[in-house]
Every structure is written in structure tokens, then in C-alpha cells.
């Protein structure tokens, strides 16, 4: 019996965390629609899940803020390496805006847990797009600076 269960669970365990959570939410909704009595008896699991998510949220906020500040510092280091002068107020403003944006997105995700997964995907996509666009901007600025130095 356990080998059949292992064969069934192996693909689920090899998935990422977000697909596992999504499958769990869908399974919970289907259980509530099919058998409300059974859903009531396992509602403790749902409450534990939500409590665990809210317990982990401050840690996630810290990680997001730290990552935002680290990305800002790396961006400023790249600008400095390319010879682009960045004054302290501009650097401080960039770090503060990054940290506030990370807190804002995390706060919204904590308040709306069900939509938080969508927000995290949008945030990751936006962060990737911003990083890519700043890479293009710094490359263009470096090329422009090299052309100015050359002639």
C-alpha cells in the first residue's frame, strides 16, 4: 500500500512549492463543494495553513527588503565601476524606494493571502523587467561615456 502511495505522491513532492500550494487550495475548494461536512472536519488544516503563512510573512518581508537593498547596492556599484557618478542622496533614495516598494508588495500579499501568490509572481516579473531595463540603461550609459571619452 505504501509503495502505491509513494508512486502517487512522488510527482507532487517533486513539484515546486507554489504548485503544491495551488493544488492544495484547489483540493480544499473542491472538497468544500463536494462534501461540506468533510470540509468542516478538516478546516483545522486550513486554519493551520493560514496561520503558518502569516507566521512566515515577516521573514519573507525581511528577505524581500534585504534583496531590494542588495540589488540597489549592486546596481550602484556597477554604475560606479562604469564611471557614472552617483551622489549619496541619489543612492539613499534608490535604496529607500526599493525597500518601501518591497514592504508595500509584501504588505499587500500578507493582507490578501489568496491573491498573494499572484502578487509574488507579478513582483518577480516586474523585478526581472526592472533589472533587465537597468542593465540596458547602464550599458547604454557606459557606451555613451566611452564615446565621450574617445572623442
UniProtKB/TrEMBL annotation:
> SUPFAM superfamilies from the xrefs?
Proton glutamate symport protein (SSF118215)
Residues crossing the lipid bilayer are 12-34, 46-79, 91-122
Single GO cellular component term: membrane
Q: Does the keyword Membrane apply?
A: yes
On whether Transmembrane helix is a keyword of this UniProt record, the answer is yes
Keywords, A to Z, come to: Membrane, Transmembrane, Transmembrane helix
Identify a single GO molecular function assigned to this protein. symporter activity
Signal sequence region: none
Protein name, UniProt field: Serine/threonine transporter SstT
Amino acid at each position: 500500500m505504501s509503495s502505491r502511495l509513494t508512486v502517487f505522491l512522488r510527482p507532487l513532492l517533486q513539484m515546486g512549492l507554489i504548485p503544491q500550494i495551488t493544488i492544495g487550495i484547489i483540493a480544499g475548494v473542491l472538497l468544500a463543494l463536494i462534501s461540506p461536512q468533510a470540509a468542516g472536519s478538516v478546516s483545522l488544516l486550513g486554519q493551520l495553513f493560514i496561520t503558518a503563512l502569516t507566521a512566515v510573512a515577516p521573514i519573507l518581508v525581511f528577505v524581500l527588503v534585504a534583496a531590494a537593498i542588495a540589488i540597489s547596492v549592486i546596481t550602484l556599484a556597477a554604475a560606479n565601476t562604469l564611471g557614472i557618478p552617483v551622489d549619496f542622496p541619489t543612492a539613499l533614495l534608490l535604496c529607500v524606494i526599493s525597500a518601501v516598494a518591497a514592504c508595500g508588495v509584501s504588505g499587500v500579499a500578507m493582507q490578501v493571502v489568496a491573491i498573494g501568490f499572484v502578487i509574488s509572481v507579478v513582483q518577480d516579473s516586474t523585478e526581472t523587467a526592472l533589472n533587465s531595463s537597468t542593465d540596458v540603461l547602464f550599458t547604454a550609459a557606459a557606451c555613451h561615456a566611452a564615446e565621450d571619452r574617445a572623442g
